[in-house]
């Protein structure tokens, strides 16, 4: 989970988190993050299969912001 400069959240999947964050911050990542740089990594999680990662990404993206904030609070992640 990334925190964008406009305080929005962005979720995705990759097999190299550090490289992907750098790509987003270079303006070569997702269209969503290009105009919301810099981004900051808030949370990452490993999955055993690509399918499991994609399912988690889909579930994350379809939650309201309040649910995402509750998740961060439960994991003691400060984003404000």
TrEMBL record:
Signal peptide: none annotated. Residues 1-70 form the GIY-YIG domain. InterPro entries: GIY-YIG_endonuc, GIY-YIG_endonuc_sf, UPF0213_domain. It holds the Pfam family GIY-YIG. Transmembrane segments: none annotated. Belongs to the UPF0213 family. This is GIY-YIG domain-containing protein. The lineage of its organism: Bacteria, Bacillati, Bacillota, Bacilli, Lactobacillales.
